[in-house]
Amino acid sequence: MLTQPYRHYVERTDATKNMARYYAMEIAPTLFGSTCLIRSWGRIGCRGQSMEHKFEREREAVDLFLTLLRQKRAKGYRHRAAFRALR
């Protein structure tokens, strides 16, 4: 069972490069008791792509969540107030 909700939505925009991207992540429990990290990314306003990673322990999902978040921030993605649903 998750001890706290993990959700994050970041965007990267650059008008000079016609760039408007988003990246969203969420950790959720599965029906079988494991933990799933759901990632979604693409152009803002479009459905984009998604990927799921399943883990036996919540700690593994949180570690990947934080690693990906650091990578995105290093590339220039910034937090936005509204979280967009992944589904």
Structural class: alpha+beta
Based on Cα principal axes, name the global outline.
elongated
Subunit arrangement of the protein:
single chain
Could you describe the largest sheet, including whether it forms a barrel?
Answer: 5 strands, antiparallel
Q: How many angstroms separate the termini?
A: 21 Å
Query: What count of structural domains?
Result: 1
Report what the structure shows.
By secondary structure, this protein is an alpha+beta fold. The protein has a single domain (6-79), classed as WGR domain (q64v53_bacfr protein fold). Helices cover 20% and strands 44% of the residues. The chain has one helix and five strands, in the order ββββαβ. It has one helix spanning 58-74, and strands at 6-14, 19-29, 35-43, 49-55, 78-79. A five-stranded antiparallel sheet has the order 4-3-2-1-5, covered by helices on one side. A hairpin with a 5-residue loop joins β2 (19-29) and β3. The two termini are 21 Å apart.
What layout of secondary structure does this protein have?
Layout: E1 6-14, E2 19-29, E3 35-43, E4 49-55, H1 58-74, E5 78-79
Question: Keywords for this structure?
Answer:
1 helix, 5 strands, about 20% helix, q64v53_bacfr protein fold, alpha+beta, elongated, five-stranded antiparallel sheet, about 90 residues
Give a brief description.
This protein has one helix at 58-74, and strands spanning 6-14, 19-29, 35-43, 49-55, 78-79.
